[in-house]
Design a protein that fits this description.
single chain, about 200 residues, alpha+beta, 6-stranded antiparallel β-sheet, about 20% helix, about 40% strand, elongated
Length: about 200
Amino acid sequence: MACAGPVARAAEVAQLKLERSDESVYLSVAVRFDLPPVVEDALLKGIPLFFVAEADIYRDRWYWYDKRVTTATRTMRLAFQPLTRRWRLNILPGAISVTGLRASLSQNYDSLSEAMAAIQRISRWRIADAAEIESASRHNVEFRFRLDLSQLPRPFQIGVAGQRDWAIAVEDSRQLLAEPIRDISLAPDMAREVAKEAVK
C-alpha cells in the first residue's frame, strides 16, 4: 500500500474574485496561512522561498472531460537580505525554470509580515485573453497556491521532504461569469453587486 504524502498546513482561500472584460480575464485572490517558525528560520539563514500561484480555465464538455483552455502561472521569490535587514520579493510572470529572475519585478519590504502580505494577496492578475473564452460555453477556473519545494537547495529538499510544516498548499475553484463586465470602474454600490455575481 502506498504511503500518503504530508498533510498540508492549514491554509485557506479567504477571498477569490473573477473579472471578465472585453479584452481579458482577471483573478483577484487572498490566501491566508501562517508561516511556520522552521520555515521562517530557513529564510533568516539565507534560503530563498518560492511561492507559486496557478490558474487553469476549463471549458465544460458534456460528452467528455472538461477541456483546459489556458493556464497562467505566477512565481514569487522571497529572500532575506542580511546586510540591509530587509526582505526582497521578486514576482515572475511564469515558472522560474522558464523565465528566470531577469523577467521579474522586485520590491523591498522592511518586515517579513509586509512581504508575506504582498505574497498572500494578488490583485487583478490577468490569467487569459477574452478571445480564449467561448461565449456560448460554460467555463470554470481552478486556482492553486503552494510553497514550491523543488526550488530549495537540493540537500535541503531531502531534509524537509515529508515534513508537514513545509507542505503549504491550497486550492479553490469558481465558475467564470458568462458575460463580460463592460465597465469595471462602477459606482461603489454597483461594483459590490458585480463582485458578488462574478464569484458565483
